[in-house]
């Protein structure tokens, strides 16, 4: 299917996530290992449109495996949503003799990539990089494990103060559409309650649970709230609501915000990024295209990108039950 | 002046800070070393009023030096602001044969303690524990160094995203009245600008500086804002203002919040807490009272509590100049 | 099969690993949730023999999920290897009305547990807790993920010096029989070479590889060596050997040692420990015995303990290939 | 004295220490601020001899303040100990129009620098960068605070295992001639005993102390040993000696090694490095030379380099007393 791949492009797109540099490094080194040229495009699709690129060899990526963020930078590109934009990008790739692309990012990145690939017959492989872990076809996305550790470390700190002052803390974590981060960090940090987009248990249940735990002798509590929770109240309103209804609680709010995206990647994310990206390059060299690489049951697999984009990776609802048991 | 000290009480009050447990441990162990009884009061002045206490021996404080928060908990007490409240506390101490108190906290704690001490002729020594570093008579307060590291580590993470996306981040840090945290973390994290309560350089200067740095080729920037900054705008309004006036910036806000109070204390804070608290007990055993211990030029000193409370520890304004030079 | 379980014992045995406390906590809280008594035995089998136990309720385990080590302590017990020792333990359990045990530990723990269980007809369930990850029937053991992060963080620090001084560092990591830690941290830390017990590639290959990487422009390198590597040389002899044969390298050695066992558990290990231990208790309450719980493909499963002990969890040798590609 | 300084060179020498990059950055940015050229020399004196240099502007040092190690690398140079070597270095500087040098390093660096400066009439200013904190004329050297935190964090981890297994750990830390690291981390990590080069209390005292603490109910202990301790036994021999004499102890050894030099600098070290280096450049621009900058009582001061080199910064022996009290 098409000509032999001699030069591979790589870019990162969407929100940055820890381990993206480990992924870039693995793409570059695997190209070097197979004597294939490698070109990095800056700022995702926008850099492809603008032709902002850099030639990358094995030494270009030294001492990057441990860095957060992405050395190729990331951006959202409205221009790439137009046919003209994508045509410019394709022309740039052709002119630079780039035969195929590795796209590191989330589902928005892959969706744009698929349209582009089909319009211009340029092979792509997707590498799932996002802290949200909401992508089908892989147990874990790059950056998710690091984000979990960052959140749990932050809540551990907040718990020091919560315990010292007998306070209730509402901690908002990332996750507009998916509760992966909230659910796992809630269990990992020993939260009393966890509010996620996928399951609205209602405000009454929250009050009940907090009152019960107070009676059970707990003097401080943490509630982890996903950005996209469906209670109809934001995290500040939630705290107010609880203060009004359970006046014995001195409720406070912390919004963890952007610290969740950055930081040195965990070992898990570095190894995951490395394994996925080696495979991505090998698939391209093997003539494959339109696939996403993923980790399933500890093995690296690949699946059709269109299939991956059909649904969302869903949370394991049994974790809600685990959380309830553990907050006894 | 008065009878020999045979039993010493210890409590923590005000906002908790990392290293308070190292201070408690040092009070307890020093008492044990000098064969003096030690009693811990829970929740600061309120626990003294309620008579909520625990007898502490050398083993009671094992494996606590590395814990954030305070095992004696902390609270604010309105009742202690009344004569009746303080009289109850004094009666409890007398009944428990507690001859003197070590108070670990900030200036509010010391002010209350001085009134109490004079009314009831109970010797006290203050140990400065607060992340704000705003106390006269010591170069450093317990918890301040840890808080600086927590903030800088958080901003390092935010910078990963800022650099990856060419963004401007406003990061709010603690410090209602004092700019110590903002100033030092601003320099430590390489911030473009630092806004502190002590010095209002005006919004025009902020815009000028950001515009200049953009022209100088900087693509991302961090502005560290103290809670108590005097621009007249909160951190969200500041970000809006900059977006309106410098539309090329994609400005975001992160409020670090309560993660700044918690966490494992740094070595510096553990050693500081240990040295100050050993001295506090030794001073009481030596018949001294009404003093605060502090670290001056790396030595442990003591000063009159009333003197310490007369003014505020002021920032070194030369650091603003350093910051300006380094954000060139 | 046998009487209803009304009181469950829990213990930790073998080398401690981060997350053991999260496992204990989950056992205790799950018992509380199902209104079942819970008893902790100190120091593993030895505490069962000595009858050193503590009654545990939901509040006993507060603020422990984030602690390294094990609050129930661990020990090796020669006495438990004798029939008399095990008989004493069984008598103690019977006297205390403990109907079943949850054993948290590695394969040595499970082997001893199985003998005991069959001799005295006491149901047990095993929860895999060891940093070595060498247990069949689970993708991950509790503590392994944290140990990977600890090692990678340490090597990141060593790399700072290696890069600054153009040095070659040999870093010895734990793993007497299994190369899981070496292999994954080697990839995660970007090591040049990885020496593991499972695969002896020979010293010539090591010299070749180091010489090639020097010629390719690398000025510093890390070699990760598993304790149990099969080169026939220990890590210090390896460094000497390389210095003699490749005199341009200034080779140094660091043995990471016991820091690998400790530390706050990662979020992954906390969630893993929680999920496994909830299931362990539920299985016992459900009348099951002689099983080990494990995580397979992100789900909690259980397998027969005798089956689990038949073989060893084997490394994925494809990771050696990945490592070779990435050190290009 | 001599011509106006228009181009300043900067280098790092001796063992690397965290914060050296913050120092380089501050030298570079301060030069830029004062419209002065800045040239970096690689690998310390050896790079000056070889003329291995790089022109540095404000953007060259972006995103370096948080990195361990030194981007200019470091090395020891035998050639610089010869007149010929120094003459070559001087010739290179003259040819490159470098008028003055900022030397970042320890006393060996400053000693070599002073000989060079006097022979060739090239102004130098020393910036104290070493984890050992053994330099006169400053309360703190760059990297020392970070090293303390690294060591304490490592011992915290070891303590998890020590407590879980009732073990005695001997932990060797850096410090061949000075006990600063051992003394402060020993207090910060709650060690039972601390062995330093400056004070040999004898092996009997060690045994006495360990036996006493065992009787007092301690079940695990940490002994921190400085590399240069004067017991006449290395850390492994010490452990053997204790095992023979106190057989109830299961004594283990960990040598922390090179992890102590690396890692992200603490906020303290970043601010210290920044303040010292701004001053170093300002002194050169002001016509000063032969000085070392230092922090005394929280202020930046300077002293004569020859004076600084006359003695060693000595430990505060009162800390030994504090340690004894706290290990009660």
Automatic annotation (TrEMBL), chains A, B, C, D:
EC number from the UniProt entry: 2.7.1.11
Binding site for Mg(2+): 107
Cofactor: Mg(2+)
Activity regulation field: Allosterically activated by ADP and other diphosphonucleosides, and allosterically inhibited by phosphoenolpyruvate.
Known catalytic reactions: beta-D-fructose 6-phosphate + ATP = beta-D-fructose 1,6-bisphosphate + ADP + H(+)
Protein localization: Cytoplasm
Membrane-traversing stretches: none
Residues given in the record as ATP binding sites: 15, 76-77, 106-109
Superkingdom per UniProt: Bacteria
GO MF annotations in UniProt: 6-phosphofructokinase activity
Domain Phosphofructokinase: 7-284
InterPro entries hit by this protein: ATP_PFK, ATP_PFK_prok-type, PFKA_ATP_prok, Phosphofructokinase_CS, Phosphofructokinase_dom, PKF_sf
Residues that coordinate or bind substrate: 130-132, 167, 174-176, 227, 252, 258-261
The UniProt record lists the keyword Metal-binding: yes
Keyword set includes Glycosyltransferase: no
Keywords from the named record: Allosteric enzyme, ATP-binding, Cytoplasm, Glycolysis, Kinase, Magnesium, Metal-binding, Nucleotide-binding, Transferase
UniProt: ADP binding residues: 25-29, 159, 190-192, 218-220
Positions of the catalytic residues: 132 (proton acceptor)
A Pfam family per the record: PFK
Pathway: Carbohydrate degradation; glycolysis; D-glyceraldehyde 3-phosphate and glycerone phosphate from D-glucose: step 3/4
Family assignment from sequence similarity: Belongs to the phosphofructokinase type A (PFKA) family. ATP-dependent PFK group I subfamily. Prokaryotic clade 'B1' sub-subfamily.
Subunit and interaction comment: Homotetramer.
Cited function: Catalyzes the phosphorylation of D-fructose 6-phosphate to fructose 1,6-bisphosphate by ATP, the first committing step of glycolysis.
Descriptive protein name: ATP-dependent 6-phosphofructokinase
Organism: Christiangramia antarctica
Gene name of the encoded protein: pfkA
């Amino acid at each position: 299917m098409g000509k032999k791949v001699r030069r591979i492009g790589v870019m990162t797109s969407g929100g940055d996530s820890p381990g993206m540099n480990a992924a870039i490094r693995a793409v570059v080194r695997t190209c070097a290992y197979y004597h294939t040229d490698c070109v990095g495009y800056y700022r995702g699709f926008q850099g492809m449109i603008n032709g902002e690129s850099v030639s990358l060899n094995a030494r270009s990526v030294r001492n990057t495996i441990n860095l957060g963020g992405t050395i190729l930078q990331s951006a959202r590109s409205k221009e790439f949503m137009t046919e003209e934009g994508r045509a410019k990008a394709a022309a740039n790739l052709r002119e630079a003799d780039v035969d195929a692309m590795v796209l590191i990012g989330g589902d928005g990145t892959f969706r744009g990539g698929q349209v582009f690939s089909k319009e211009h017959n340029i092979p792509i492989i997707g590498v799932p990089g996002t802290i949200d872990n909401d992508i089908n076809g892989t147990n874990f996305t790059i950056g998710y494990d690091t984000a979990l550790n960052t959140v749990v470390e932050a809540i551990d700190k907040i718990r020091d103060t919560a315990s010292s002052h007998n306070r209730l803390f509402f901690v908002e974590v990332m996750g507009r559409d998916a509760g992966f981060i909230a659910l796992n960090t809630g269990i990992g940090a020993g939260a009393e309650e966890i509010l996620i987009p996928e399951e609205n248990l209602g405000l009454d249940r929250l009050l009940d649970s907090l009152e019960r735990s107070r009676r059970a002798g707990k003097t401080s509590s943490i509630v982890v709230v996903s950005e996209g929770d469906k209670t109809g109240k934001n995290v500040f309103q939630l705290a107010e609501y609880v203060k009004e209804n359970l006046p014995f609680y001195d409720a406070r709010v912390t919004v963890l915000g952007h610290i969740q995206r950055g930081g040195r990647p965990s070992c898990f994310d570095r190894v995951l990024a490395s394994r996925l990206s080696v495979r991505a390059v090998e698939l391209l060299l093997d003539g494959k295209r339109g696939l996403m690489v993923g980790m399933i049951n500890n093995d690296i697999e690949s699946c059709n990108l269109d299939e991956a984009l059909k649904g969302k990776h869903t949370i394991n609802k049994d974790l809600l039950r685990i959380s309830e048991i553990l907050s006894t």
